[in-house]
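Bumping with the actual sequence this time:
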Amino acid sequence: MLFADEPTGALDSLNGERVMELLTDAARSTNAAVVLVTHEARVAAYSDREIVVRDGKSRDMERAV
């Protein structure tokens, strides 16, 4: 399991995409889960499942894989 808190927060868009591709490839090649926290929709779009937390309440936004 890999935990990442805003892994692209301080990066420009190109390097942010590279980091997300590396995380995705690493997780798939090792059959690992990535638990990622982000405020960016483009980063969240890499996920198979999204849980949105707003005002202390969570909402599961599972995606079809």
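The tokens above came from a reply further down the thread. The mean pLDDT is 92.
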